[in-house]
Structure formats: C-alpha cells, structure tokens
Amino acid sequence: MNSIVTTCPKVSLSNGLQIPILGLGTSHDGGYSHDAMLYALRECGVRHIDTAKRYGCEEQLSIAVQESGVPRQDLWLTTKLWPGEYGYTASKKACRDSCSRLGVEYLDLYLMHWPDAMVPGRSNREVRVETWRALEELYNEGVCRAIGVSNFLVSHLKELKEDCSVVPHVNQVEYHPFQQPEELVEYCRQEGIVFEGYCPLAKGQALSHPTILQLAHKYARTPSQICIRWSVQNGVVTIPKSTKNERILENCQVFGFQLEGKDMEALGKLHDGRHVSWDPTCVE
Questions:
Q1: 150: confidence class by pLDDT, cuts 50, 70, 90
Q2: The sheet that has 48-50: what strands, in order across it?
Q3: pLDDT band at 7 (very low <50, low <70, confident <90, very high)
C-alpha cells in the first residue's frame, strides 16, 4: 500500500510553513470515528487533520493521535474558533482550551469559523477585528503556528486587511465542482492567503454527475477520486470527510494520476453556485 505520507505534496504558507495539500476532515453529528482516524493515521499516512470546537471531537481526536504513535511534529492539526467565543478574552481562552482538549502545546492552524459574530448590538466587523487581534497575539506567542479564517468572502478579508497587521495564512471555504468561487480564489492568491476547500464531493451530490462519472470511467478511478484530484490539481488544500476506512483510503489515492487539461476545463464548467453547506454571502 502506498502511504500518502511520502507522496502528498505540501503548500507553502506566507510565513514559510508547509501544509499538506490533502487532509482528513471531521464534523459533528456522527462525523468522527476513532477507528477510522487511527486507520487514516497508521495505514494511510494521513498527516493533516481538520477539526473544530463546534464538532465536539477534539478530546477523542487527542486519544487517537496518542494511540497512533505519530510524533506531534509530523502532524498538521487545525481547529476552529466558534463565533460564540469571539471577542478578545474569550478567543484566547477558547484557543488554549482547544489545545488542552487536543492534548497539544500548540496548534498548527487556528481558524475563525464563520464571519458572522452573532453579537447583538455590535457590528460583525468590530467583533471580527477584536477577535483577530487575539489570534495575532496567540500567533506571536507561538500557541498557533498559523492563523486563518473560514467561510470569509472578499469583503470580509478586505476589512480584516484594513484593520489588522497579520494577513490570514489560510481561508477555508466550501469548494467543489458546483461551487467554484473564482473571484475569492484569485483574491486569496493575490494576497498570499492559501485557499483551502471543504466538501470536495459536494456532500455526495457530485458523485452521480454524468461528467464526473464519465471521467471516472476514463481514468479507471472513482467519482470521489476525480473530484479530489480536480481540487488538489487546482492547488487547493482539500479536506474530504469520511468515517469509513475504505473511503479514507480511496480519497487518499489521488496522487498517482493527473487529469488532462480538457478534463479540468470540463469540470470547471460545472459551477452552478450551489452551496451544500453554509452560505456566507448574506453576512456583512
């Protein structure tokens, strides 16, 4: 079995750190499996794990990491700050609490989970700035090796740039053949923000599309491998989620082939603007 640990490319952040272009996502409501996480770490060579306070599995993940035997320095661990804990003091406490639950002294990447601060009587911009300044301090203190945002649009990123000193290292956004926010991707590249995509299979909706099925047949790959390969071939850090061993292995085996230019173009034409997760376009 080819472990992706030796073949998975890495993407450089603006501060020189390198994040594996493929990771394993987790989620709430049954989106975590201890056995599958162990399998991913031990058998598939996965070294990039994405989680969040919101998902409620940080403590379980800590146990899996310890049991896996993978050295801490070989792992890239991302977790996220929930809007209910935005604000300067609360953010700092939430970050350290996440570290404690994960059993680590530092996070590789800490993300603001959502642009809407959900604080009555205060503007989202005001709360985002206050929160980001706390993350900047955590970054300068080494508690977070990199900091970023999730679900932020160009308008949110521009405001943050005006108000703060550290440009986010990463923006994690929904990204799949039906949701290709090219203006946002291009803005992030111009600003040195690594673009990371979640829901690469559009929560399964992409797996039955005729174009994707046709390409799966052409390349003798699965539809999910076509979608993930398309994403990473676009230079997007990609974090498919699964709690099944066979699916995790399948999702990791995307570095042994390359999609032809005309097939990349065909997939590029599938954008129809649909969101299968949150839609941040209504957030000021």
A1: very high
A2: 24-25, 48-50, 76-81, 109-112, 147-150, 170-174, 194-198, 237-238
A3: confident
Catalytic residue of the set 55, 139, 175, 198: 55
Per-residue pLDDT tens over the stretch 8-66: 999 999 999 999 999 999 998 888 999 999 999 999 999 999 999 999 999 999 999 99
Three-state DSSP class for residue 115: coil
Residue 48 CB-half CA count within 13 A:
22
Task: Identify residue 255 by its one-letter amino acid code.
Answer: F
| Residue the block writes with tokens 């080494």 | 142
In this structure, the strands spanning 194-198 and 76-81 are unpaired
Residues 65/70/72/77 CA torsion (nearest 10 deg): -50
Phi, psi of 99 (to 5 degrees): -55, -45
**DSSP assignment string, 124-138:** HHHHHHHHHHHHHHH
Evaluate the CA torsion angle 237, 240, 245, 250 in order and state its sign.
negative
Identify the band that residue 158 occupies on the pLDDT scale cut at 50, 70 and 90: very high
DSSP 48: E
Q: pTM of the entire structure?
A: 0.96
pLDDT on residue 80: 98
Known binder of ligand: residue 113? Answer: yes
Is residue 55 among the annotated active site residues? yes
Angle, helices 124-140 vs 154-163, to 10°: value is 60
Residue 169 three-state SS = coil
Give the integer Cα–Cα distance in Å for 270 and 93. 42
Percent of the chain at pLDDT > 90 equals 93
